[in-house]
């Protein structure tokens, strides 16, 4: 990374006008091309040993998630235990990447996950709407970190972004990043509300310029969540951002990814778009609640030659 690059990127976030000029100067997304490429890569299939490797990698990339108003301490403890030992009958099955819960449930999950190597993520900043004063969002973040979260999933203010108030969004992400301390920050773009692929690209760059460690597609609380074309655009953004700045940022599609077949499509997309460096739980995650069970069933099929029934594994 050169001094010229650092200086340039510092300059583009110095004013609303400069930031707008930079974001609107990014290359436009070819909608037809992006959708066709994502569809083409989604037809790839992998077999036998490669499939077994992909399943285990996908398991290691899962942020096992429960974000319901009816969440109870018992449910969160059970989910956390499952994250550590997804298949109690098979100790060779890897643990997932993280458990993701509301801030109030962080202390409960922390009791189970402490010392296991499984990360503890918490949604914050008035999830899922993001419609709260900045002081509330920062307090939400600090409370989750203090309770034991080492990853924060924040939502951007889509109203501000769609109104063109880019500097406001940038400054908010920067403030939340500071409030995270040593915790990693995942910035949720809520791509289903951004309307265009060009907006997805702009929001991705905005989040990365503000210091986000990951960019994430969705809250899972709107009808349109993760899609292959949107994730393709975000993967292109992190690839190009690293080429420009030297800093690598992760990607997390979330919502609507339910089957092993879905997960494999995303892994192919990662490999073909951003490259092998992102085929790692440190740089790519699946936000999911039901995906893990299908991965476990497919894993058992490869190991034993027979499918386990859907009720063999605990429901999340």
Gist of the model:
This protein is α/β, with parallel strands linked by helices and 316 residues long. It has 13 helices and 8 strands.
What is the H/E order? HHHHEHEHEHEHHEHEHEHEH
Tell me the structural class.
alpha/beta
- Count of β-strands: 8
Strand order of the largest sheet: 7-6-5-4-3-2-1-8
CATH C-level class is Alpha Beta
The DSSP helix count reads: 13
Assigned CATH superfamily? Aldolase class I
Task: Tell me the major beta sheet.
Answer: 8 strands, parallel
Q: What do we call the CATH topology?
A: TIM Barrel
Q: What best-fitting shape do the alpha-carbon axes yield? A: globular
Helix content estimate: 40-55%
Number of domains: 1
InterPro entries: Aldolase_TIM (IPR013785), DeoC (IPR011343), DeoC/FbaB/LacD_aldolase (IPR002915)
Pathway: Carbohydrate degradation; 2-deoxy-D-ribose 1-phosphate degradation; D-glyceraldehyde 3-phosphate and acetaldehyde from 2-deoxy-alpha-D-ribose 1-phosphate: step 2/2
Organism: Polymorphospora lycopeni
Protein name: Deoxyribose-phosphate aldolase
Plain-language structure description:
- The structure is a single chain.
- The chain is of the alpha/beta class and 316 residues long.
- The chain has one domain (3-304): TIM Barrel.
- The protein is 49% helix and 10% strand.
- An 8-stranded parallel sheet has the order 7-6-5-4-3-2-1-8.
- Helix 5 packs parallel to helix 6 (106-113).
- The longest helix has 18 residues, at 228-245.
- Belongs to the DeoC/FbaB aldolase family. DeoC type 2 subfamily.
- It holds the Pfam family DeoC.
- Pathway: Carbohydrate degradation; 2-deoxy-D-ribose 1-phosphate degradation; D-glyceraldehyde 3-phosphate and acetaldehyde from 2-deoxy-alpha-D-ribose 1-phosphate: step 2/2.
């Amino acid at each position: 990374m050169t001094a010229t690059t650092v200086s340039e990127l510092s300059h583009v976030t110095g004013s609303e006008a400069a930031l707008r000029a930079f974001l609107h100067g990014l290359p436009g997304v070819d909608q037809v091309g992006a959708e066709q490429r994502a569809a083409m890569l989604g037809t790839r299939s992998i077999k036998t040993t490669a499939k077994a490797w992909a399943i285990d990698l996908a398991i290691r990339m899962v942020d096992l998630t429960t974000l319901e108003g009816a969440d109870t301490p018992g449910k969160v403890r059970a989910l956390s235990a499952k994250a550590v030992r997804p298949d109690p009958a098979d100790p060779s099955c890897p643990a997932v990447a993280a458990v993701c819960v509301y801030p109030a449930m962080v202390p409960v999950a922390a009791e189970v996950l402490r010392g296991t190597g499984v990360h503890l993520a918490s949604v914050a900043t008035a999830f899922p709407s993001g419609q709260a004063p900045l002081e509330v969002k920062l307090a939400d973040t600090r409370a989750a970190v203090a309770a034991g979260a080492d990853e924060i999933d924040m939502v951007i203010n889509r109203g501000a972004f769609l109104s063109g108030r880019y500097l406001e969004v940038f400054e908010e992400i920067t403030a939340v990043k500071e409030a995270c301390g040593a915790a990693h920050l995942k910035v949720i773009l809520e791509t289903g509300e951004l309307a265009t692929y060009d907006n997805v690209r702009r929001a991705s760059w905005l989040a990365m310029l503000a210091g986000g460690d990951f960019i994430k597609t969705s809250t899972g609380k709107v009808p349109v969540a993760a899609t292959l074309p949107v994730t393709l655009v975000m993967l292109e953004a992190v690839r190009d951002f690293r080429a420009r700045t030297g800093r690598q940022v992760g990607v997390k599609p979330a919502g609507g990814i339910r089957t092993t077949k879905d997960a494999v499509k995303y892994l192919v997309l990662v490999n073909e778009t951003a490259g092998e460096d992102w085929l790692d739980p440190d740089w790519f995650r699946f936000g999911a609640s039901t995906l893990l069970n299908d991965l476990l069933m497919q894993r058992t099929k490869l190991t034993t030659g027979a499918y386990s029934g859907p009720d063999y594994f605990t429901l999340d």
